[in-house]
């Protein structure tokens, strides 16, 4: 494990050397970082980490994005997620897998009351529609590992929420 300063990520290129696979789940919230900080973390840091990973020999990059990611979206969150997907794909990995989970079900250390309410509601909805609106973070993690262990199917593969559920159960 290497601790890096994301504001000076280029100085930590050695931490990205010699890895065949890169996993990226980096992200923040607009509420926590502000709009500019959100863009810096969710797009700029991720894109730079992908470039360093590729330069260090990474062949397969696995990116956690978001359901609805679209570089043309009017919504900042979805636009930034779509932009970073495009930037990561342009890096030129042998394989790139993008996971687009819906609402992540998890326990957080910090207090997010509205998110907690939404998670409680979606937990109930998930009993009827288990793959429609949410996914446990453990399922996303299992799907990320499983996609690396499976033979490659093309240069870029995008997994939507339902596929994440299916792969996470495999």
Helix residue percentage: 40-55%
Widest sheet: strand ordering: 1-2-3-6
The span between the termini is: 28 Å
Q: Helix and strand succession? A: EHEHEEHEHEH
What shape does the CA trace take?
A: globular
- CATH domain class: Alpha Beta
CATH architecture: 3-Layer(aba) Sandwich
CATH topology: Rossmann fold
Calculate Rg over CA atoms: 16 Å
| Poorly predicted parts | none
Largest sheet: 4 strands, parallel
Structural class: alpha/beta
Structure description:
GO terms for molecular function: catalytic activity. It comes from Rhabdornis inornatus. Residues 4-151 form the NAD(P)-binding domain. Pfam families: NAD_binding_10. This is Protein HTATIP2. The longest helix is centred in the first third of the chain and has 26 residues, at 30-55. The chain has 170 residues and is an alpha/beta fold. The radius of gyration is 16 Å and the shape is globular. Helices cover 46% and strands 15% of the residues. A four-stranded parallel sheet has the order 1-2-3-6, sandwiched between helices. A two-stranded parallel sheet has the order 4-5. It contains five helices and six strands. The chain has a single domain, classed as NAD(P)-binding Rossmann-like Domain (Rossmann fold, 3-Layer(aba) Sandwich), CATH 3.40.50. Helix 4 (137-149) crosses helix 5. 29% of the residues are buried.
């Amino acid at each position: 494990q290497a601790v890096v300063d994301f504001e000076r990520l280029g100085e930590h290129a050695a931490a990205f050397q010699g890895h065949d696979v890169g996993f990226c789940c980096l992200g923040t919230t607009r509420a926590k970082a502000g709009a500019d900080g959100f863009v810096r973390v969710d797009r700029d840091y991720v894109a730079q980490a992908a470039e360093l990973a590729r330069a260090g020999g990474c062949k397969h990059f696995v990116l956690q994005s978001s359901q609805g990611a679209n570089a043309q979206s009017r919504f900042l969150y979805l636009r930034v997620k779509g932009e970073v997907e495009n930037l990561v794909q342009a890096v030129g990995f042998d394989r790139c897998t993008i996971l687009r989970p819906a609402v992540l079900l998890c326990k957080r250390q910090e207090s997010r009351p509205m998110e907690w309410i939404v998670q409680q509601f979606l937990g109930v909805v998930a009993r009827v529609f288990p793959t429609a609106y949410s996914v446990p973070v453990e399922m996303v993690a299992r799907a990320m590992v499983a996609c690396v262990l499976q033979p490659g199917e093309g240069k870029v593969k995008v997994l939507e929420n339902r596929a994440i559920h299916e792969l996470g159960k495999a």
